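Hello forum,

I keep getting stuck at the same step: I have a sequence, I want structure tokens, and every attempt I make locally crashes halfway through. Rather than fight my setup again tonight, could one of you with a working pipeline run this one for me? It's a single chain of 337 residues.
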Amino acid sequence: MKLTTARVNAFISKPDPGVRVILVYGPDSGLVRERAARLAKILVPDPDDPFCSVSLQAASVSGDPARLYDEMASVALGGGRRLVRIPNAEENIAPAVASFLANPPPSDSVLLIEAGDLEKRSKLRSACEADTPLACAIPCYVEDSAARQRTVADILAAEKIAAPREVIAALAEVLPPDRLAMRSELEKFALYVGKGSTATGADVRASVQNAGAAELDDLVYAIGSGDAKRAAQLIDRLFAEQMSPVALLRAAQRHFIRLQWARGEMDKGVSAPDAVKRLQPPVFWKFESVMTSQLRRWSRAKTEQALRKLYDAEAAVKRTETPDTALCAQTLLGLAA
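Reply #2:
Ran it on my machine without issues. Output:
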């Protein structure tokens, strides 16, 4: 079964004990990871305990479909429910999942699958969205402006921070679209403001990095258009202005997430110009034609590869003794090339 947006939170808070396969998928990879992590903590006492949880690679499942059945038939050492996870799942595991659902072993183990943006005709989606009480699919789409503001408000409320509507709108505009990145930035924002306080516009300007926004826009559009020379000039200029490598990488992530979402609309039959018009926040008018051209250049598979490289680069530049500016520039120029 496919869960509607209204039912997702209720299911995550209290998963149906009869569901044996849960697919979490969508273009918002941060939201996919966040929801999968919440589910894992509810399904088993300790998701990191190897006695009650195991992680399988998609390649091993597709290469040996019986492996999935065997893992799902196993019982947790010490009793209790067993969790089998497949992170970064791909379409090639669909036959193994369908085979399991057709003849599940008599156990209460749960399969938790994390995947990217799957097409509507995806066999993996079809298996989990079928009319069966054994499986469900949870979509994770990039939020529109109104939904982003509700998410920001909810996270701030959980952090005991009050914020007027205009502050929430400003935060929703400048924070990264990826859910985990957004949550991380809001946690830092809460520390800056102080729990129990009321956030102001000055707090947003002081603590959330948005310097050089126009040049950042120019940079991400240069990367998406394959203009490596222009991208190199802008990277040098932004570094000279003390822009952090993480800020550059996150700007590129936001851009490619928007490209990925718009490509998904095109796969549904929407034209490239109309897909651009549906983006929220709206594309600035001077970039509309550029964005339309980029949609024809970047397939959904290529945007997913680009995002994977950008997330890996962000993780790498945060490590100590890493040449962060060089790695950031290499990643961005590699995408432009």
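Residues 145-207 form a domain with the Helicase, Ruva Protein; domain 3 fold (CATH 1.10.8). If your local run keeps crashing, start a new thread with the error log.
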